[in-house]
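Fold this sequence, please.
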Amino acid sequence: MRKRLPKHIYASLLKTMKEDLPLEENVAEVVANAMKDWALELGATHYTHWFQPMTGVTAEKHDSFISPTDDGKVIMEFSGKELIKGEPDASSFPSGGLRATFEARGYTAWDPTSYAFIKGSTLCIPTIFCSYSGEVLDKKTPLLRSMEALDTHARRVLKLFGKDVKKVTSTIGAEQEYFLIERDMYKKRKDLILTGRTLFGAKPPKGQEMETHYFGRIRGRVANYMAELDRELWSLGIASKTRHNEVAPAQHEMAPIFTNTNVATDNNQLTMEFMQRVAYRHDLACLLHEKPFEGVNGSGKHNNFSMSTDTGENLLTPGDNPVENKQFLLFLCATIEAVYKYSEMLRISVANAGNDHRLGANEAPPAIVSVFLGEQLTAALKSIETGKPVTAAKDLVMELGVKSLPKFIIDATDRNRTSPFAFTGNKFEYRMLGSNQSISGPNITLNTIVADVLSDYADILEKADNFDSALDALLQKSVTENKNVVFNGNNYSEEWVEEAARRGLPNLKTTPEALSEFTSEKNIGLFDRHNIFTPTEMESRQTILLEEYSKTINIEALTMLSLAKREISPAVLTYTKEVIDTLSAKKACGATIDVSAETTLAERLSTLFGEFIKSIDNLEKTLAAAEECDSAQTEANYFCEKVIPAMNEVRVTADSLEEIVAEKYWPFPTYEDILFYV
C-alpha cells in the first residue's frame, strides 16, 4: 500500500490502522482503486467481503470486478462504496432471535485495521457483519470493541505512570493442534465426515503410552504437508513459526508469531481453512475436532495473551526485579483479579460440545479456572500482601556436568501444562480453548474483563492525593482478595477439585451448565458497561450457543443410529452366521469334535448384539423425547443429561463387538488402521 497510495492517503490510512481514528471520506475511493490494481496484477477476478458470523467459520460472497460500458464492452472497476459496504442476507445466519426470515437485510463493513488478502482468484476484504437495525451478528465487531475498551483503560493507567502512549493493544499467539489421517480412511468413516469425530472405536493395542510421538521425527509425508502449509500461510502474511508432533499418534501442532488480537483472529481462521485445503492436496484429511478419537489426547488451542503499547513495550514483562516493577505488578494483578472475578465468563468462552470431551480429562486443563504464577511471582505477591521483603531472585545457571555443553540461564519459573491460565515469562497462556473454535470469543472476554478491572484501578488512582501510597494499597488489596485463584500445583488431581471447591472457585463441567451463567446480572453488566454487547445481544448469543450445542449432539446421535443400524448390525449378523455355520459343520462331523470355542463365541456375539439392539432402541426413544423441550436451555440440558448417556451405552457395546468381530467384517476402518499409517 505504501508503494501504491499517495503519501497523504497512506498516512491517513495508517493513522486509522494504528490509532483507531475514523477513516477520512476521500481515502476509501483511492484505497479501493489501489487494492483492485494490486489484486488484478496477482490474477484476481473477484472480490468478497470476508466476515465471521456466529457459525464459527467464515463467510464470503464473490462479485467480479467486471462493469459493462456503453459500447458493450467491460472494464474492471472497484469503488470506495463497494470497499466500505456490502449487503449479505442477514436472516440466513444465526441471530438468536434478533432477525426473522422476512427481515433479511444485513450489512458488512470494511475493517481497515485488518489486512486484505488474496485467496485463489479473489480479493478478500475483512469486514464486520450487522443487521439492518444495527445488532451485532458477527465475532469481529465485539472483538474490536473489546480491544478499544482495553486500550482506553490501559492508557488511563499508563498515564498515571507518566507514559503518554497512543495505543495499547492485546496481542495473541494462537498455537493450533490438529490430526492428519489418510483421506481414504476419512472417506470410509461417515462419523468423521458428518460430525468431525469418531462415534465408535475400540482401543487399539497401542495408543500414546510409549510417549514417542511428542517432538518425534516428523515423517516425510507429514513434513511435506507442513512445508506447503507454511508456504501458503506465509503468502497470506501469516507468520507460521513452529511445527512439531504432538502427544497422540497422528497429532501435530503449529504456532505463529504474535500479532495484535484482531489480526491474530483473522489469521487463525485462515490457518484452519488452509490446514484442511493443503491436506486435501496431499491425500490427507486434517481433523480439527477437539476429540476425534477416544482414548488418546484431543486437540486444543493455546491462546497466548499479552498487552503491548504502540512504542513496543510489553506490559506483562516482569523485568529484572518484578517486586520493584510496580507497573508490571499492576497489570499482573489486574489480569489475576479479572480471571478471579469473571472465571465463569472465561469458562463460558470455551464452552462447546467438542471441548466438553477434553476439559478435565487429564489431557487439558479442568473446567475450574485458576492461575499459575510460579515460585518467583508468587513470592513477590506474597511480599505485597504481608509487607515483608522478598529476596530478589538471582540468575541460576544450568550445570549439566559435561564440559563441552553450553551453560545457560534457567527461567524464573517452571511451566505448568495442567493450568488453564498460566504465566509463562511475559504472557499468559490460556489453555482451555478447543482446537476448532474461533479465538474471538475467548479474547473478547479477556480484553473486556481486564479492561473492567483496569477501569476500576484507574478510577481509584486518578483520585489519589499520593499516587505511590494509593498504588501500594491497591496492589495489596488486590493480592489479598484474589489469591484464591492462584494455584501452582497439579490441576489434574482430585485433590485440587476438592481444594477449589473450598476456595469457592466454580466448576462448570458441561457446556449447558456454563451457558446458563451467560446472561447473569454480573455478565450482562460487564459487557453492557463497556459497550461490547447490549443485554439483547447477550441473550441472543446465549440462545445461539445453546442451540448449536443441541444441534451438534442431535447430529451425532442421528449419525450414530445410522451407523449402528445400517453398518454395524449387518456386519455383526454376517459374522455371527459364519460362526454358527462353522459350529454346525463341526457338530455334523461327529460328537467327538470340540465345539466349545465356537459355542462360546456365538453366545458372546448373540448376548452383546442383543444389548446393542436394546441400546439403539433406547437412544431412539431418548432422542425423540427431546422434541418436548420448551426452551433452548432445557433442550441443551436434556441432550447433555439424557441423550449423551444413551449414546455412550450404544458406543460401549459396539466397541466390545468390534473387539471380537473378524476384521474383514467390520464395516469401517478401526483406530489401528487410522492412527499409525501416515
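The two ends are 42 Å apart (CA to CA). The mean pLDDT is 93.
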